[in-house]
Amino acid sequence: MNESIRAQFPILHQTVNGKPLIYFDNAATSQKPLAVINAIKDYYEQYNSNIHRGAHHLAQLATEKYENARRTVAQHINASEHEINFVRGTTEAVNLVATSYGRKFIKAGDEIIVSEMEHHSNIVPWQMLCEEKGAILRVIPITDSGEIIFEDFLKLLSEKTKIVSIAYISNALGTIHPVKEIIHEAHKVDAVVFIDGAQALPHKKVDVKDLDCDFLGFSGHKVFAGTGIGILYGKEELLEKMNPYMGGGEMIKSVSFAGTTYNDLPYKFEAGTPHIEGGISLGAALIYMNEIGLDKISAYENELLAYGTEKFLEVDGLRIVGTAKTKASVISFLVNNIHPYDLGVLLNEQGIAIRTGHHCCQPLMDRLKIDGTCRASFAFYNTKEEIDATVNALKRAVKILS
Amino acid sequence: MQKSIAEIENEIVDDFNLFDEREDKIEYLIDLGKKLPLIDSKYRIDDFLVKGCQSKVWLHAYEKDGEIFFEADSDSVMTKGIIALLVKVLSGQSPTAIINSHLEFITRIELQSFLTSKRSNGLSSMIVKMKAYATAFA
């Protein structure tokens, strides 16, 4: 990875508080390469139009580009095009499944399993469903190092288990969960599995056929595309059985007051004019990532993680929260009893963007008996030099705050 | 004789103006936080938490001879610095003076520029709470 990649990301070349920007908040959102920025620009400059409707040139072009993006997404995760539903993001993907699949198939006494370290987005929709249906939410406990306890997961599984929903990679700690094994075990009791791929797609190859997951959700803005677009993948036979999530234009075949026929997949779940340039930007982002190479991205980020872990530990009193054996390039940490916000402010003064707080994982923070952490998360455009500069800034901040 | 709120505010502005660099101002704020007297542990409980702050803030007030005195603490040293400023300005004042205070020093020292938007909300919550104590004792 080198300067030619960084050159593709205009936003990285600026100063913050007089210092070169170091962007280590990639788990919150990623920056956009020119390929993505230009795709959005081209859309508005050259062919902005509503899709799937007009017979005119612009409408055809926009439809073609949007559907090409869907094909790119399908290829990227090894799915079929009609299994790819454009949504607003991972949160909407979870809510769609909880609402549409959940309302139809979950009954009183059924059980839904999540882990103790899920993002609130992968907890609250299930809680809402459980409340509505009288179903029960079961929670896989975790170890102090931030790994799920697999044996305990096996004990939770029973014929009552209907849905298992778990992140591929933890946003707060970076833990990579053994999702393939989880899916395999869940299928033994005929439960369906939703994989929250928000943190996985930016870092690694995700193959839905290889995993055999039933649903997968992810967000465009975390994989270098625009905001407000995301994907829900679902196995065709499941999506076919589900009712639409929202009613409106696009999702219908015919409407009369005697009754309405729903459109075929994937349009059944895409009511209203979609986020056209968002979808196109997602296609552009995935093409860009594949041009670099997912294996190359993973390998380089692992190198950053190993280097960062070693270097961060050079800071006196720093402890890493989340030390799972398999991790993505996320380092969550605390220094002595310094409040994470204070460190965040002082790093910001030195041009460094990290995230502080509970990372939308309050149950995880309760489990670890902390209020929050500082989190540095790396993308392939980050460098070891940036890690060095951050370690120096951290040492300085700790000195001021101690 | 107790200085007026305006006089103390002017002193704070003068203190901050001693520093040209943003970073030095922050360090000064942190130092104020470190020097803030610890409050009695009996007030470091949830009942005294100020709601709406990103870090934990415990605030307690008492009245003596018609004046209100504040004691506060936080798990964040920067927040303690901010609290130290508020306590310096408002502690020992009459309820009326506290309720009517505009706390213009906050904008004059550009305190907001050191704070995230969430923290700014927390600062507002602290001020609302301090004024609420004053109202209760008025």
Notes on the structure:
The complex is a heterodimer of chains A (402) and B (138). With 402 residues, chain A is α/β, with parallel strands linked by helices. Chain A has two domains: 3-31 and 294-401, Aspartate Aminotransferase, domain 1; 37-290, Aspartate Aminotransferase, domain 2. Chain A is built from 14 helices and 17 strands. Chain A has helices spanning 3-6, 34-47, 57-77, 90-105, 124-133, 150-156, 179-188, 208-211, 236-241, 276-292, 294-312, 340-349, 362-368, 384-401; strands at 15-16, 19-20, 22-23, 84-87, 111-115, 136-140, 161-167, 192-196, 215-219, 230-234, 252-256, 259-262, 318-321, 330-335, 352-353, 355-357, 373-377. A seven-stranded mixed β-sheet of chain A has the order 4-10-9-8-7-5-6, with helices on both faces. Chain A has a four-stranded antiparallel β-sheet with strand order 13-14-17-16, covered by helices on one side. Chain A has a two-stranded antiparallel sheet with strand order 1-2. The radius of gyration of chain A is 22 Å and the shape is globular. The two termini of chain A are 37 Å apart. Chain B has 138 residues and is mainly alpha-helical. Chain B has one domain: Sufe protein. Chain: A (Alpha-Beta Complex). Helix content of chain B is 52%, strand content 12%. Chain B has helices at residues 5-17, 22-35, 77-90, 95-100, 105-108, 117-137; strands at 57-64, 67-74. Chain B has a two-stranded antiparallel ribbon with strand order 1-2. In chain B, helix 3 (77-90) runs parallel beside helix 6. Chain B starts with a helix and ends with a helix. The mean pLDDT of chain B is 88. The interface between A and B is medium-sized, with 14 and 18 residues.
Strand content of chain A: 15-25%
- The overall number of domains of chain B is 1
The shape of chain B is globular
Number of helices of chain A: 14
Q: Which fold name fills CATH's third level, the topology of chain B?
A: Sufe protein. Chain: A
Tell me the number of strands of chain B: 2
Helix tally of chain B equals 6
Give me the Rg of chain A, rounded.
22 Å
Instruction: Tell how many strands the DSSP assignment of chain A holds.
Output: 17
Number of domains of chain A: 2
**How does the helix and strand content of chain B classify structurally?**
mainly alpha
User: What is the class of chain B in the CATH system?
Assistant: Alpha Beta
Structural category of chain A is alpha/beta
